[in-house]
Amino acid sequence: MASLPKSGTVTYEEWLGMPVVNEGREEVVNGEIRITPPNKSAHVRVVARLVAALQRQLDPAKFEVFSGSFGLVIRKEPLTCREPDVAVFERAGEVEIDGYFHSAPFLRGARRSRSSSAITKASAPGKCGWSAPRPLRSKFSCWRTLA
Questions:
Q1: Which of 32, 57, 75, 88 lies at a C-alpha separation of 20 to 30 Å from 81?
Q2: pLDDT tens per residue across all 147 residues of the chain
Q3: Contact 13, 49 (CB under 8 A)
């Protein structure tokens, strides 16, 4: 994703023209750029285990599982683009524009933290329509998109 220190808000077009962030994670919420520190090693390990568990349970011909740094554009006005820890997309409904996902994922998840409370309401662990190994269930919140 792209960013520069800037006060106020940015439009989708302005944001596309900004340099890519190399350190940390960037999200844009209602046009406001938010940069957070990179994930720590424990977080990365949990995400890797979750991705492996999802990949074992999903048909790769129908679904793609993504993790790492990728942009999920929620809306263009005001611009809101998130970087979920994990997202599962149905291949048939994937929409990619300007190198970012613009379609709603089948499933997306983010590690629980005090700072993530403003993201979205999460369902209880294990109530997401998929199962993860027991050690992961208490560490993740997940959302299923019903679109």
A1: 57
A2: 554 444 689 999 999 999 888 888 899 999 999 988 988 899 889 889 989 999 999 999 999 999 988 999 999 999 999 999 899 999 999 999 999 999 988 887 665 444 433 333 333 334 444 444 444 444 445 544 433
A3: no
